[in-house]
Structures are given as C-alpha cells and as structure tokens.
Design goal:
CATH topology: Ribose 5-phosphate Isomerase B, Chain: A
Bound molecules: D-ribose
Number of domains: 1
Structural class: alpha/beta
Strand content: 15-25%
C-alpha cells in the first residue's frame, strides 16, 4: 500500500499520480487534501508519515509546490526518510542508498511526465542494504539525540 498526500499546490499533479497508480494496479491510501482550497501541508505530511512508520503503508508520496515543505515536515517524524526528487537518478539512489520511505515532489518544479517517471523509479528500486544499512541505523541514533 502506498500512502499519498498533497496540499493545494500539489493537488492537480496528485490527480494525475492517482490515475497512474490505479492504472498500474498499485493500492493506495489517499490522505488528502481533496481540493485546491488552501491547506497546511504539515498536517498532511504527518498523516502520511505516521501511516508509513506504523507499517500500514510501505512507502509514501507527498506533493506540494516545491516538495520541500512536505519533506521537512515528514522528516520530523522518527523513522521517516523523505527525499525531494526532481530527477530519476536521485529517486533511484535515494532508494538504493538512503532507503527513503517517502518521495516528495514539487508540482511547481517538475511536469507530470517527469513526476510519473520519478515515481515509477522510486517504487521499483530496492534498498541495497550492506554498508548503507549501517548508515541508516545511525539515523535512529540522531533521532534519539534530538
Ligand atoms: C503553498 O503555497 C506552498 O508553500 C507549498 O505547496 C509548498 O511548496 C511548501 O513547501
């Protein structure tokens, strides 16, 4: 299950993403927002993040204007590794090396075609483990010292 969330800035792109994932028969849980009315992205980021940390959803996708606010908010939740990606190389490497569990996209930064490529790359790329697992475990140490 993939957790989805956006604010008003990401709403239009999210509709394209939902249609794309539906076409690929990928199960999703949509945490809103559900219109282009202005809303506060940290609220949505928290809902998506908690669903990922709890294990209800394996990965999450957050969209706002830049992807930055969503990623900052998501990364405040222990256990979340959110990465803003505007290219497929970053999307691949953040799964391989960082075991990113949330992809953040900027709807005002990239177009829908690239966004879908980035999403496909993110969802299809496994974590490499090995030396990277040690580094990921160090994130928990950082969280413990917050
Ligand atoms: C909303 O205008 C905008 O600030 C938001 O979508 C996002 O880009 C924040 O990082």
């Amino acid at each position: 299950m993939i957790a989805l969330g956006c604010d008003h800035g990401g709403y239009a792109l999210m509709q394209t993403v939902i249609a794309h994932l539906k076409e690929k028969n990928i199960d999703c849980k949509n945490f809103g927002t559900y219109s282009e009315d202005s809303c506060d992205y940290p609220v949505i980021a928290e809902s998506v993040s908690r669903s990922v940390v709890s294990g209800e959803c394996a990965l999450g996708i957050l969209i706002c204007g830049t992807g930055i606010g969503m990623s900052i908010a998501a990364n405040k939740i222990n256990g979340i590794r959110a990465a803003v990606c505007s290219d497929t190389y970053s999307a691949e490497m953040t799964r391989r090396h960082n075991d990113a569990n949330i992809l953040a996209l900027g709807a005002r930064v990239i177009g829908p075609g690239l966004a879908l490529r980035i999403i496909d790359t993110f969802l299809d790329t496994p974590f490499e483990g090995g030396r990277h697992a040690r580094r990921i475990s160090m994130f928990a140490d950082l969280e413990a010292r917050r």
